[in-house]
Structure formats: structure tokens, C-alpha cells
Amino acid sequence: MGLPGSTKAATAGQPYTYADNPWRGANVAPLGANIRWDVFEKGSTYLVRMLYNEKETAFKAGCRPVSRGSAFYELNELERCFGRTASGS
């Protein structure tokens, strides 16, 4: 990901230690793993929204929400946007 302090890999001869490595994940991305996708179903339609640190977050550029300013996306649109097909390829 190229985050500050993350570009130098540890080696078998010099493994990571807290004392000699400046990387602190909590400083770079506090709550960075707090990503949630909510899926709502109505009949055969699925709507998806993403939350990052408990806040609605848009998917990547090029993905079209159900309406301007909405945090909801149709599942078919996300599959299109991320280059996925029904077969999973």
C-alpha cells in the first residue's frame, strides 16, 4: 500500500522488532480494518453500502450509486464496476 514506514521489508536475518522499526499501524491507519458492507435484499434486488470507521463511504470512482449523493449501490453495478461476472471470473 506504500504507507509511510511500510516500504522496508523485514528479513529472516533482521526480523521486525518494535524497538528497531518505526512502523506503527495505529498511527498510519487507526481503525483501518473497520470496514463493513451492508447488503439489503428486496425480491431479487440487492443494495449494498460500505461504511469505513462507521461512516458511509463511496465505492471507487466509476461505480454509480442508485442516485446522486446516495451511499447505496446495486449489487449488479458493483459487479460491473469491479469487473466481476456471475461466474466469478
Automatic annotation (TrEMBL):
SUPFAM superfamilies: Phosphoglycerate mutase-like. InterPro entries: His_PPase_superfam (IPR029033). It comes from the Bacteria. Gene3D superfamilies: Phosphoglycerate mutase-like. This is Histidine acid phosphatase. It comes from Streptomyces graminofaciens.
